Fold:
Amino acid sequence: MAPTTCLRIPFLPARGRSANVNAPPSWLPRRLSLKSSATNGPFTSADVMGADWKGLKVAYQGCAGAYSEAAAKKAYPNCEAVPCEHFDTAFQAVQNWVVDRAVLPLENSLGGSIHRNYDLLVQHSLHIVGEVRLEVHHCLLANPGVKIENLKSVMSHPQALAQCEHTLTGLGIEHREAVDDTAGAAKIVAEHMVQDTGAIASSLAAKLYGLDVLAENIQDGKNNVTRFMMLARKPNILRNDRPFKVPIFVQIIFHCHTLSSLCNFLPLSHLVLIVTTTDQLYGQFVRQA
Structure:
């Protein structure tokens, strides 16, 4: 079966943060994959316990065979994973009722935070309803018959290239070419039948695009884990019988004392601030038991 084409949303109506994203736009027939216990209310644990997610449309960024697709299927088994060209497209697809959920990366243990998705969280009225962690195992792929010594260059996502830098140098592959995603690199190599260029992607991408796996686990660091957020139009009802994480975005303008005042407040509210980026003050408040 041919790989699914990436979703593009060029002309969807814009919906601001003040819009009611719990109701579908007038131009789209109403469709709900899950029924909440309260009409138009947030989902509870009872709503999702035991759900097999069959028929649920879940957006991810990248082409078929991307790590994000594996994360989407890990988060929602039996779902229909929908590839999107860009992170923005996945956010728009959920907000405009084209899909039900989205699974997108927030941070990687080696590469750090994906700042673009933090920005998009601020710009859209979606809710983080869970997270899933995926171990990343990079493979060196090439067309059938091609050997490692034949490779003069390799293409992949910039983070994947950076995570395999020392290994690639040790293999004598000096030239790097960055593309939008790992599976997209595998697709390009396969479609153009190049003999001197390989791709860094998953073993699933190799199988999907008919490539050979020349080397497995080529990442420089052993602990390579990506944390993905699960996005929905409705929030979850938080339980009070265990610790939980709540992403909060703080904007500080011209007031240098604001951060110190905020930190003084945290012990009184039993919250801990975990700053995840430095270019803007993004962080998580973790409630202590």
